[in-house]
Amino acid sequence: MSTARRRMTAVAAAALSGALLLTSCGGSDGGGGGDGRTLRLWHYEGPDSAMGVAWNAAIEEFERTHPGVEVEFEEKGFEQIRKTAPMVLNSSDAPDLMEYNKGNATAGLLSKQGLLTDLTPEVTARGWDKKIGAGVRTTSQYDTDGVMGSGKWYGVPNYAEYTMVFYNKDLFAEHGIAEPTTLAELTAAMDEFVEADITPLANAGAEYMAQQYLYQLALSKADRAWVNAYELYQGETDFHDAAWTYGARTFADWVEKGYISEKSTGTKSEDAGVSFIQGKAPMLFSGSWWYGRFQAENQFDWGTFPWPGTDLTLGSGGNLWVVPEGAKNKELAYDFIDITMSEKIQNLLGEKGGVPVAADPTAITDPRAKELIADFNTLSEKDGLAFYPDWPVPGFYDVLVSETQKLITGGSDPDAYLDAIGEAYEKDAPKR
Amino acid sequence: MTVTVERGSAAGGKRHSGGAAHRPRRPGDSYALFLLPGALAFLAVVVVPFLMNTGVSFTDWQGVGGPEWSGLANYRELAGDEDFWASFRHSLFMVVAMAAVPTALGLVLAAALFDFVGKHFGGRVTAVLRACFYLPQVLPIAVAGIVWSWILAPENGSLNESLKAVGLGGWQQDWLGDPDLALYTVMAVMVWVQLGFPLVVFMAGLQRVDPALYEAAELDGAGWWRRFRHITLPQIRPEIHVVLLWCTIAALKVFGAVYVLTKGGPGGATDVPSYFSFTTFFEKTQVGYGAAISTVLTVLVLALALVGLKLQERTDA
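^ Those are the sequences you sent over. The predicted structure of the assembly is below.
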């Protein structure tokens, strides 16, 4: 064989082998096949969480009502789905139904790219829109730019979430402090704890918790138009207005006063939660996602109260059920969503410490769960869900973590903080 | 009598007469086939993805939908991105922590274990100590990182608690949360992680040094330090080159430790290029820009590797 031919043969062999190698790395059919016999389902709720328990019950119910149909459930991690969803949905491996994060940078982005199915016809035909309140549905609908709040339905949330102050009743009683109902009473209580050499608020500067304290402080001086301007771009956002300035300055002041530890910059939310569970921190301001954990692990009497002196707090509909555009068994996916919206599953979700969107309040028996749901209903009725501070632009979460850390350490002052987050926001927010 | 066996013939190669195809087979020919699977795998998992990544770096893309050609825009933005350059400055600190310090410490420790511990306490004690130093290399960085984050926690962390217990409460620090301290803390952890690798390589290198050299030097009255300088160092120079090159590349690519310990914080104080690229890709969904960062990083690592290999060849020649 001549050298040239040998080279040609070698190149052809290499190309063929490469193609075979790449093919072997490629995706398979995925098992659904569009035969109506299999529902491929992905979600990332822990099996012991309220949602995990409810979805498992929904799978049983689905298999009972769909004889001969198999549910292929794959448990995924939150980060796993968050980081790989666009690639998966772009491939032939997309499941029929999956849980996905809500917000402009996630579900909004995928809907804009045509990777999610428009659920509007099903939502109206099956009456899901009647069950989901206005505040909760904001994260379900996205316009053609992928901005939440209006447009077609691309996801259905079965639960909601909101923030509150979790407090250790035993520790309060030990120091003779009553449950605060106003901001003045809250700061007086924190002064008492600082006096007793106890840091009153658990915090995690390395993750979401610190930025949520600051945003809540800003919300206490804000209104719905302010939130809509910031989150939905329905107006100008001035990062040096009264609300943002109050939030940043008060937060820095609270670190200075010792309400929030200046050593919490590197702390993760798990550490903060554990310090509350261990009875070291008397208060923790965070979301209803902690509720089931505290119910299971707290060894002391505890309770919750809404952040005092505000109509707005962080919260929204929960994560969404979305149906990928490439799903093979969409009808089965709609049937499954319908089951999760049923009163039976919704009541179970509420009983286990979740915040259902369509439960029968009288069917919930656990007193703390009743209180949780009642507080949410009050908040929802007064249109008090103000979403989360990191939602408006992609990557804003990291900016907020980083800048809030600097605020805690004194590496930047409130004005510099507001300049920095304002600059990051303006850089990536859609121009309208 | 000398018998020469032609490799091609021994392998059963056909002989033809005349033309370029009939040149005698070179010894390497029969091995080329064995390199093919590796070459194909390298092509599939390194070359092709790298070329694709480079292509993406010339686009404005969010990871889904169609990428838009943007030419050199990402590279122009990169040139003026202060966060990117800060992350590279941190990389230089990582080179100190993961290459310079472990190599220097590893040399001294290897020589001490070989010369002193080996002679006075025996091979078994030396092997145990060597294994102890090497243990962090075996531990997954995710596990080691979580354990270190417990040790270094500002409140209830075992380091701060230990300092308090021995009356050094004033030395307690927010090791990973203080922006002035966090990078040095991560560096210290990386020294711990990295130290075992040079130590083991150097100890293996010391095994092949002729003991007669040391004996002669001892007879001439050379002390430990002189023997270390004039025998140990020159004799294991190839190992030092390999370790330095390997560890420098590892330092430039470091990701896991930063991800687990600090996530680049506080306030970007420990950000490194690979983590910066990761957050740009997945958090900001600026895939084109993230690809530009990783392309620059890859080119830099390749250039460094080539320069290192060239230098090594020149020194060894």
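The longest helix of chain B spans residues 82-121. The CA atoms of residues 175 and 304 of chain B lie 32 Å apart.

Shout if you want it in another format.
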